[in-house]
Amino acid sequence: MSSNSFAYSEQSGGGEATELGQEATSTISPSGAFGLFSSDLKKNEDLKQMLESNKDSAKLDAMKRIVGMIAKGKNASELFPAVVKNVASKNIEIKKLVYVYLVRYAEEQQDLALLSISTFQRALKDSNQLIRASALRVLSSIRVPIIVPIMMLAIKEASADLSPYVRKNAAHAIQKLYSLDPEQKEMLIEVIEKLLKDKSTLVAGSVVMAFEEVCPDRIDLIHKNYRKLCNLLVDVEEWGQVVIIHMLTRYARTQFLSPWKEEDGLEDDEKNFYDSDDEQKEKTDKTKKSYTMDPDHRLLIRNTKPLLQSRNAAVVMAVAQLYWHISPKSEVGIISKSLVRLLRSNREVQYIVLQNIATMSIQRKGMFEPYLKSFYVRSTDPTMIKTLKLEILTNLANEANISTLLREFQTYVKSQDKEFAAATIQAIGRCATNISEVTDTCLNGLVCLLSNRDEIVVAESVVVIKKLLQMQPAQHGEIIKHMAKLLDSITIPVARASILWLIGENCERVPKIAPDVLRKMAKGFTSEDDLVKLQILNLGAKLYLTNSKQTKLLTQYILNLGKYDQNYDIRDRTRFIRQLIVPNEKSGALSKYAKKIFLAQKPAPLLESPFKDRDHFQLGTLSHTLNTKAAGYLELSNWPEVAPDPSVRNVEVIELAKEWTPAGKAKKENPAQKFYSESEEEEDSSDSSSDSDSDSGSASGEQDEQGGSSEDSSEDSSSEPQSDSESASEVGDKRAAKRNSKSKWKRDSEDGENENEKSRTSDSSSADSSSVEESSSDSESESESESESESRKVTKEKEKKTKQDINPLTKDVSLLDLDDFNPVSTPVALPTPAFSPSLIADLEGLNLSTTSSVISVSTPVFVPVKTHVLLHRMSGKGLAAHYFFPRQPCIFGDKMVSIQVTLNNTTDRKIENIHIGGKKLPIGMQMHVFNPIESLEPEGSITVSVGIDFCDSTQTASFQLCTKDDCFNVSIQPPVGELLLPVAMSEKDFKKEQGRP
Amino acid sequence: MIHSLFLINCSGDIFLEKHWKSVVSQSVCDYFFEAQEKAADVENVPPVISTPHHYLISIYRDKLFFVSVIQTEVPPLFVIEFLHRVADTFQDYFGECSEAAIKDNVVIVYELLEEMLDNGFPLATESNILKELIKPPTILRSVVNSITGSSNVGDTLPTGQLSNIPWRRAGVKYTNNEAYFDVVEEIDAIIDKSGSTVFAEIQGVIDACIKLSGMPDLSLSFMNPRLLDDVSFHPCIRFKRWESERVLSFIPPDGNFRLISYRVSSQNLVAIPVYVKHCISFKENSSCGRFDITIGPKQNMGKTIEGITVTVHMPKVVLNMNLTPTQGSYTFDPVTKVLTWDVGKITPQKLPSLKGLVNLQSGAPKPEENPSLNIQFKIQQLAISGLKVNRLDMYGEKYKPFKGVKYVTKAGKFQLGRFGR
């Protein structure tokens, strides 16, 4: 303030004049202005004058020009005194620009910066929250050690501010103060602890960020806030979500038991690629004891799932890495679709995502195999993207898809991008070594490439062929001869060196050619590349040892040339070889073994992915991308052997979390409804959902219809599911039909209920089901929209009422209700048939019930009696289970495959309460279980039927077969043939079906 | 997190720098220039570069490099996504994200960057909030400001910042209430020489332009929502409603925004609306080659295909091309060897074709491969996946908005021919 009046008295006249002069330039654009004055000191004088004028417009113009200078990276520090006087300006824009200036130069001009502090202290008490917040921001951004106590005080005050925005800024200030003065750590941790308790979504991300930077090891601070953070997550802004998810991933790895152990047995197909069998058995045996996932662990996995749909690539990646690192292996699959989606994004995002997929695809091919084609390379991709895609394609190669892939690779070899073509040849080499079936095909293909026009392609092929031949010491004389000829034409050193090495190694297989090659090489020795010279020396040495008659003189000639070579490596090698192979009086004991030394069996090089060693870094991190530990990288700890006390996370009043504690006994009712209600209880604005929410799509009202239709269609033996197009009257009919079979079903559904009870906490997605029907009924949407408009408490009451209303109704008409849920809501990653009926219905609005009537299931002509082992008696502690496919329409639902399971008791005591426990089904798959068997006598056997909807895929259905004391992980993978339903159809109908779009 | 940001133009000038923590010298960019030189092509500059003391994470957008300096571990996508958001914001404010626009508005750029990051951590990135804090430049406003002395910086905290719906500003008022949705679908395809589809899928977005007063609560439903295989949402969409009912229910941001982007699974057959017959042959021992392309409609659902452009990256040995198009015009850039043929629209009576001779460098070996073609086209009033908006309902406000939906299908990454053959 005083400075203004000072300026007025002294500079008023002059100020006016400069102002007029500047007006013209500065109003057009500041850039025009700062272009004029480079580092001219006189111009800076102008700026000083303008800053000291009493007109805001002049000051503003000056500040704009100064900011322009800062932006350009020009030094404007000498203006500090003039600028700092304006910190208290009434004009908010001037003030903001002064802040910008201060933050930039305060560090350099600490003493002068102190002049501004009192202004900020005043602003911290302002009634406007924006001003309070920005004052705190600037105050904490001034890196002047003297004001540390003032900052500390300000942060403490701000952390108790009423405005969450100010508290958010306080959280940011914590990090700034910490980096300025790490001594303050203890005090800052107190503030962090306080802010972690904050319930505002605005604060959550920032305070976790502060936590990560100041005290990432104080995991104990998180306990009490864990559930809150999980529940707030969907509503936090995107950047905060990323930070919180990364932090919670680390948290989960320290606090929960590994969910992987139990899966190891289930995931045979996945794991066999990299785990040896016996190792696996060991693991499963050790951890046979039943594992139940901590409900808090489940909560995290459940609450992050919706974020896979975020528009922000960083959030999607964060969730993906969370699933990868902490979810049960069977659930990781859902992330692949989202990651593949990110590949449509810009090149930088693609680059990072592809790197992460590359790492994942080494360990779990199955995850990305359905998306193989998404990794096909386009000619317009940048090279770095191309090579990453190639890497992934190579990782995904297996017996089934290798022929497709090789055809694809063939086109890549022709690419104009030679770097990429060379990488492709390397990839072919890797496929050849990994998949023995195609080794010869690949080798032949590579040999064909030897006659390629492009030298780089030829050279790369030579190098790869060399590696392949090394792995297969079998006779490949022809190829070696062919390559020997290439020596005349090919100029690329690596390739020449490879050929020479190969001939040397196999000199006894090509006895005629080898000496001749050596002769030719000796001729041009001096003009060769160093790499080639070394190999010529090696070749000479090897021939000298095996065929000294023909090559003795040649070799000595070469050794003489090498002796005087310019390169000392070559001179060294020459000396070494001479001593070793040429017998003379001085040669020691070694020369006796010269042949053994030179012609020893060399281990074949291992062709493996460059991403192989990256998996010890947390995915999605900078360290993973760089493949080195970046500063500040926080290791993911290994799962604890024994779970730390879960009660530390208990907080007195948290409604949501209570739902998920295992002791939650208030759930005797219809589970589908309960899921539904839970999602209701969450804040209205939060669109959070998860496995259980998606299951809840089938509120009971709807199930009448579903049950009815599935029942009906299975009676009709129709293979066409009927869905959207069903009319109300039809449903009515079916309900009637349904009642008949009521008694038969009753027990099933009740058991299903119990089943659900037990399994929910460990896997909420495993609701029992028997039918894949896609429909949504009125009653469901009504109840939803009604309850949504109510407040939370009301919702609860209402729900109870609806429950009561619906329950009798359900009992009356539908007994399948508990087993049905709506699969629509879970997007299915599985390959669906091209003519999905629902799609046709969508497109044409046809009523399918008419079409389905012409299709009738015929009895199978042949039913194989072959049974498959579900559970061996050795691993089942005496309980053995076999299954076979009776090829009968499944009575549980028309999309299900019926399976007969025969259980045998091979022990000498009763086995009690045999039932199916937790199921780990891929998304969309459903299973109808058998009734628990109360007891099975020794040597007794019983056959039960089970229905599984495999979603027309051959994915494995994994579940637990439980007895009273034990749980065994078993899985069924259907052969393709068992998924089909024999259908009798007239030719006309067939054509009609075929002609459908 | 993010320490500093440098904006670098194509010729390697650092024309803007901003530091959120201590100043990092411009010389750190030398590592970036080094990598750039090594990469030869701007597209190939690695997004993450490690230097002795810092890590550089960069994006390339609209001929500009946004290079951020990082000192400690951070998810790289976090930075990349943020940098793109910065570029988007510039685009939004200045109409383009170019060096000239940024230099002209350097003060606003600085104010924006100041608001968007605090100590390297994103603070406000929603365009609706930023626009309340810092008004976008308009001619009218600059005139008014210079007369009245008022500034384009807001002095109160935007209400959105505190609410549960940070994307919408309060007190929106329009005389004409309108809500427009553009369903834009792009066909990504790789088609081999024989015309069979190697890979095809449909990527769609729904862009919305919402100018509605107050706090409207919209719900948009589709005739066939199950088509959408994989969807990503603007934060405003209630995920739960979508999961259970397949209805998009949301309180929209004000103005233009991307509501959802989706993918239609490749398992459903994708209709390919055009076919291209191309034959490019080089004679052995001759510096001449023949070139012949014809384009025709395939499964175009009875709509006209327009805005067709064909680009071909010719082999390096091609010197020049002498071609005659039956319609449209073509250019061949002898430096980049890119042939561009601007076709226009297809009339089925007379299919457009481009024929002629290719001159090769004399003495050079005949190029081995046929180049692959990239094609662009547009079909108005058609969503190729068959997606249809059923209805838009508005709750929470009394007035009757004007509603509109527009469908467009475009070629996305549409490639014909596979690295030749």
UniProtKB/TrEMBL annotation, chain A:
Region (Disordered): 1-32, 268-290, 664-805
Gene3D superfamilies listed in its UniProt record: Leucine-rich Repeat Variant
Gene Ontology cellular component list: AP-3 adaptor complex; endomembrane system
Domain of life the protein comes from: Eukaryota
Low complexity bias: start-end ranges: 695-711, 719-730, 762-774
Acidic residues: bias regions: 268-279, 678-694, 775-788
Protein name in UniProt: AP-3 complex subunit beta
From TrEMBL, chain B:
Membrane topology annotation: Peripheral membrane protein
Residue span(s) of domain MHD: 176-417
Gene Ontology biological process: intracellular protein transport; vesicle-mediated transport
Pfam families: Adap_comp_sub, Clat_adaptor_s
SUPFAM superfamilies: Second domain of Mu2 adaptin subunit (ap50) of ap2 adaptor (SSF49447), SNARE-like (SSF64356)
GO annotation, cellular component aspect: clathrin adaptor complex; cytoplasmic vesicle membrane; Golgi apparatus
Subcellular location per the Swiss-Prot or TrEMBL entry: Cytoplasmic vesicle membrane; Golgi apparatus
Predominant localisation class: membrane
Entry keyword annotation includes Membrane: yes
Keyword rRNA processing: no
Entry keyword set: Cytoplasmic vesicle, Golgi apparatus, Membrane, Protein transport, Transport
Matches recorded under PANTHER family: AP COMPLEX SUBUNIT MU
Assigned protein family: Belongs to the adaptor complexes medium subunit family.
Protein name, UniProt field: Adaptor related protein complex 3 subunit mu 1
Lineage, top ranks: Eukaryota, Metazoa, Chordata, Craniata, Vertebrata
